[in-house]
Amino acid sequence: MGRNYFKKLSLTLVVMTLCSALQGANKSKKANILFIITDDQDAATLDAYGDNECDTPNLDRLAQNGIVITGAHQMGSYTGAVSTASRTMLMTGMNVWNAQVLRNKMTKYEKPSGNANVVKKNMPEYNSLPALFHRAGYETVRTCKRGNSYEPANALFDERFDKVCRMAEDQNGSKWHADHVIEYFKRRSKQNRNEIKPFFVYLGFSHPHDARHGKPELLEKYGAEDIDVPTKLSSNMPSIPANWLPAKTFPDGHPDLRDEHKVKGVMTRRDEITIRNEKGKEFACIENIDIQIGRVLDVLEDIGELDNTYIFFTSDHGIAVGKHAYMGKQNLYEHTFRVPFLVSGPTIPKNERKKGNIYLMDVLPTLCDIVGIQTPNVNGKSFKSVIEGNKEQIRDVLYGAYSGGTKPGIRCVKQGDWKLIKYDVLDGTVRETLLFNLKENPNELTKEHHDPDIIKVTKNRPQKNQINLAEDSRYKEKLAEMEIFLLDQMQQVGDPYRLWNQEKHK
């Protein structure tokens, strides 16, 4: 009896030792990063942010299995090519004005990828995302659109597959991007598990940026036609946005801007048929992206690496597509200033929502923080405490700038429920101030949205207080407070311009 007991005890100890060793190995294994980014996507196109018209079941599951950041933002741009500024901030952790400085110091590499071993410490891209992860022992893989990004960092990925893919067919559409990641995962699954490195995969899609060439079956689902001039409404079309307008209430300050005049299928038209048709095309492209994300996640699960992978989903900026009569992303309304941001992973709580108050420049320090890489000196701040459920937000005040057109351009500031937007464009001939209570007026409606002809189209009847409050004397003190917040933020980030009513502060 004693011998059997000790045999059982010895067996138990062996099993416990093996289990302990395996657990230790799992704890010591570095987590993987799958970072997914789309091009030009309004957060409101996802169920997690209130949409119930565009079908994205895989992103819905990602949100349910992780955390939704409701206050994620893209700081803005110094150029009409907003993606260029956004992706430079993302790759470097620098704010919009320091990102502009980096554009003037760009290294040109002979090879399109695999340059992480030759980058020098005095080069700005030395502390970019792919360089940091490469030095930390990660395999770095990238697929994305080509152009309008930060090329010195892109050239540091170990593997790179870049091409603009905005067509309906798979070889020139979203599937092309997903296929390269899937092929990498399958190759990886055949490697020796004891020698395998963790991965940092940057999966970028070229859609839903225009031209929005959707797959025929998805266009049909959303009642859309891929034609130059749509002429008919369909009951399957997405509804017109509540903040739609047929024309801008004042000039935007960027004459002849491509996104406002030359989008295929829209051009300068803002009528209901055109906008709803374009929304249908947009939704078709987004659903196809969701399908491709589902394929990628299925393979990641099949090779047994899903549970040890942090998955991030976002977009480089939002987009208007008819809201406030804008088509593009050269504005600072919420549909453009905010971005979707979902995170799931080993230490991320499930089905939670946090405000965050983050910028895309905060991604670099956060990714470093979450996998234990020493964070370089950057402008961004880690929001690891937010995505792990321990903190609601990392900052109280948010700033945005658009100076891609006439200068100084557009500025905004957010604090609490309040938002101030200011236009100082066209050599001072357009100077506009907008003040919104976002809790009461989340769509930033103005007096124009109260017009009976507009209501007839939107089917949205605004409340009396859903207007621009800047001219309302009851909010004089709040306006003054927000003006102070704005100037303070402009000074903090090194904004090189001042607006017309800030001259005395120079």
Write the layout of secondary structure elements.
Elements: H1 2-28, E1 32-39, H2 57-64, E2 67-69, E3 72-73, E4 76-77, H3 82-92, H4 96-103, H5 129-135, E5 139-144, H6 151-154, E6 159-162, H7 174-189, E7 199-208, H8 216-221, H9 258-261, H10 272-302, E8 309-315, H11 334-337, E9 341-344, E10 352-354, E11 358-359, H12 363-371, H13 384-387, E12 397-402, E13 409-415, E14 418-425, E15 430-437, H14 452-458, H15 476-493
Parallel strand pairs: 1-7, 1-8, 2-10, 3-11, 4-12, 5-6, 5-7
Antiparallel strand pairs: 2-9, 8-9, 12-13, 13-14, 14-15
Helix pairs in contact: 3-4, 7-10
Task: Explain the overall architecture.
There is one protein chain. The chain is α/β, with parallel strands linked by helices and 506 residues long. The chain is built from 15 helices and 15 strands. Helix 6 links the parallel strand 5 (139-144) and strand 6. Helix 3 crosses helix 4 and helix 7 (174-189) runs parallel beside helix 10.
